[in-house]
Specification:
The complex is a heterodimer of chains A (107) and B (253).
Chain A: E1 2-3, H1 4-10, H2 19-32, E2 38-39, H3 54-67, H4 70-85, H5 91-106
Antiparallel strand pairs in A: 1-2
Chain B: E1 5-9, H1 13-23, E2 32-37, H2 49-59, H3 61-67, E3 81-86, H4 92-101, E4 104-109, H5 116-119, E5 124-130, E6 137-139, H6 142-148, E7 154-159, E8 169-174, H7 189-217, E9 234-236, H8 244-252
Parallel strand pairs in B: 1-2, 1-4, 2-3, 4-5, 6-9
Antiparallel strand pairs in B: 5-7, 7-8
Helix pairs in contact in B: 1-7, 2-3, 2-7, 7-8
The chains are: A mainly alpha (107), B alpha/beta (253).
Chain lengths: 107, 253
Amino acid sequence: MFNLREYLIENLETEVFDIDILDKISRNIDLNNRLYIIYDSKINKPVDNTELSDIDYIRLLKTLIRSNDFKLLNSACKLNDFLYSANKISLIEHTNILDSIKQKIIQ
Amino acid sequence: MFEYNLLMDENARVSQIYFHELSKSNYPPKKVVLFRKLDLKPIIPIMTMEEHYEILNNILPEAHDSLLNLKDLDKINDENIISVTSKNINDNIVAEVIKETISGNTLIAATGIMKENILSLPKIDFLNVHSGYLPYSRGLDNFFYALIYNEVPGFSVHFVDRGVDTGDIIFRKKINIDLKNKGLENYDKKKVFITIKYFLVPYLKAQVFREFIECVNSKALEITKIKQDIKKGRTFYKIHNSLKEIVMDKITM
């Protein structure tokens, strides 16, 4: 099993990103939007329906943005949209996050 | 001699371009099954054909010249074209028509994910031209991703299986397209994006398929199925709308 919440906390400050794991996590954003705490070992299906907390969603968003990888930044945009549509972030936060993603890509 | 059929969504631009390009080649399709979606809502185009052609002429004049006079598929009168109308390509009525009409290699265009009842039809091998270099690049918008990652865009002809772009590979080609210094900065970036996605990429896919047939028929290539290592590569997803302009800046300037 894969605990997404634990993974996010353990990798809060990391500068070395496991793209394979982040790809598997971001697949769930690209296909489903909503994310859960516990997944199967392939990070393919949630094993229970406890959704990530708002703070964990933000942790994930920050991790994706720090990765500096275009594919993951693209997923971060979709996650940003989802968080706004689910009233988890404000319009100003949504705009600021989108700007920071764009800045990362331009650099 | 390599023979093939086409199975395509009648309303998709890629279908129109495949038919246009392959029909005038030395190796036209044997039969064409056109899937016509029932109750399709009309799409209001945001660009004129003239705008597409102008942008395409800047990028690749040969594509512009070749794609002039594209005809709507529903206006083509050809006894080898069979239409089937249904809500979904995976409906059994579509499977029945395919089964009764075609056999052998069948190139698909814009069919979406085909389910078991279609994929398991006897005596048919479905082929796809994917706009990524398999097994390294699966999914969507791969042409753009290749350019963003400073790679040469690749195309792959592969058999269709139950996965997304995971079937056995039979032909691959990299095409070095330079989008810089083509004057594309003078156009609306989203319009350039749309033209690349819906005109240039399908045109290149059709050329790759033509080259594949020519290689097989000239015996320069024996059809060998290369099994994909599905652990290799990445699956890419649709580029977010708000990133399209930045993407265009990065790959055209």
